[in-house]
Amino acid sequence: MKTRITELFGIKYPIVLSGMSWVSVPEMVATVSNAGGLGILATGPLDADQTRQSVRKIRSLTDKPFGANASLLFPGAAENAMVLLEEKVPVINFALGKGDWIVKAAHEYGGKVVATVVNHRHAKRAQDYGTDSVIVTGHEAAAHGESGTTFCLIPSISAALDIPVIAAGGVADGRGLAAALALGAEGVAMGTRLMATKESPLHDTYKKLSVEKDLYDTLFSDRFDGLWCRVLDTSAARKAVKEGLNIKKLLQAIPNSRDIAAQMHMPYLKLFIGVLASGWKNARQLAFMANAFRAIRIATEDGDMAEGVLPVGQCTGLLQDIPTVEELFKRIIKEAEDVQLDLALKMEANGAAKPRPAAKTKTAGTKAAPKKTRSNPTPKKTAKA
Ligand SMILES: Cc1cc2nc3c(=O)[nH]c(=O)nc-3n(C[C@H](O)[C@H](O)[C@H](O)COP(=O)(O)O)c2cc1C
Predict the structure, then answer these.
(1) In this structure, are strands 143-144 and 229-232 parallel, antiparallel, or unpaired?
(2) Whole-Å CA distances, 314 to 16, 111, 189, 220, 378
(3) How confident is the model at residue 189 (pLDDT cuts 50, 70, 90)?
(4) Which of 28-32, 85-89, 145-149, 254-258 bottoms out in mean pLDDT, i.e. has the lowest?
(5) Does the pLDDT at position 375 exceed 90?
(6) Ligand 1 test: best mutation among 16, 21, 150, most atoms within 8 Å of CB?
(7) Is the pTM of this model over 0.85?
(8) What's the rounded mean pLDDT across residues 4-12?
(9) Going by CA atoms, what residue is nearest to atom 8 of ligand 1?
(10) Relative to the CA of 138, which ligand 1 atom is closest?
């Protein structure tokens, strides 16, 4: 399947592994790239040395193109991005910050850069400073998102940009891929679907849960890590969201941020003083992150149900099994092709002229970003098909 994304990255299928902390590790990245997609390493939990070793490990496991992410809001992310540039990583994916300096440096060695965005303003800004593509993340997605849904954001942003768009949020099968292409995207990024595959390092407890749970079994709140974030609805997640950053949680952030400093080989005092000096808003955000980091790590690595919390998207309700990555990709591509054919036949049967590729429509300028209203998932359950 050829699209502007397969051409841009030199990959077989327009499918990207989202950068997921503790899940998108070197072995998983290489598995996805070897299966024809683009694996993206998550560098959030890594220090600069670990990032370098991880990139080298991926190169020892695959000769196919791969990527790595840097969530610029996290401590140590700029240092990690510098390593990615030094190692000439083929595709760098940045989020939660301004990556113009990454674009400039990556283009010097022929690397490609993808920005993860959740609204028009950020998408347009990324294109303006030369980013090659954007991953547009809809409301349905695991982890961070805004109120715009994939179904509305993708056509709207892809019509407003010249660079190719990758749709993220809610894509779990061939119908999702076909729909994303119909909406104007040139590829998809998947987190929830790929974390529940045989090769994924996610703990079995959560792999099984993500197959059992349905589409209403997620919580979308800004009281888990301080940003609007979607996680699996469990009693631990409800407790974390209820407590937010109360005094107890604020105190817990101190040892938890010590863990982060140790993990990142960063002097704790330097991290602590730096955070305090950066002002209350920033310190509050980092305290939230410190607690959330621990909760996500113990969920993904240890399968902890008592205090662990796992980011999960609404498409958890579409998961029926735990396939290998290769099986999944073959199934998705076949299903997307079948869906396209089926639609073409339906159109023909309904008297449409011979099917032809839809023309890409452009709007003059971008519309205003959606109003900041929040919608909550309907609190009722449906059985899986
Ligand atoms: C277990 C898990 C961990 C994640 N960790 C991160 C992360 O560290 N940084 C980030 O930017 N996004 C993270 N995400 C979000 C994904 O990158 C992606 O945006 C999202 O999964 C796409 O939506 P989908 O889950 O519906 O496919 C995570 C998602 C999951 C499921």
Answers:
(1) antiparallel
(2) 18, 33, 14, 10, 12
(3) very high
(4) 254-258
(5) no
(6) 21
(7) yes
(8) 98
(9) 21
(10) 23
Residue 371, in any domain of the structure: no
Q: Give the pLDDT confidence score for residue 266 in this predicted structure.
A: 67
Taking CA atoms, 95 is separated from 167, 218, 254, in Å, by 15, 23, 26
Rounded to an integer, the average pLDDT of 98-104 is 96
* Domain range for 218: 206-314
Count of structural domains within the chain: 2
| Ligand 1 proximity of 164 Cβ (cutoff 6 Å) | no
Counting ligand 1 atoms within 8 A of each CB, the residue from 18, 21, 316 with the most, and so the one to mutate, is 18
Tokens of 154: 């993708």
Q: Which two tokens stand for residue 316?
A: 């958890």
Q: Which pLDDT score, from 0 to 100, does residue 384 have?
A: 46
Is residue 173 within 6 Å of ligand 1 at its C-beta?
no
Instruction: Give residue-wise pLDDT tens across range 306-354.
Output: 999 999 999 999 999 999 999 999 999 999 999 999 998 988 888 766 5
User: What distance in angstroms lies between residue 129's CA and the mean position of ligand 1's atoms?
Assistant: 25
23-261-283 Cα angle (round to 5) = 100
**Same-domain check for residues 257 and 301:** yes
Distance, CA 75 to ligand 1 centroid (Å)?
18
Q: Please indicate whether residue 190, judged by its CB atom, sits closer than 6 Å to ligand 1.
A: yes
**Pocket flag, ligand 1, residue 150 (CB < 6 Å):** no
**Residue 197 and residue 293 share a domain:** no
- Three-class SS state of 65: coil
Q: Is residue 87 part of a domain?
A: yes
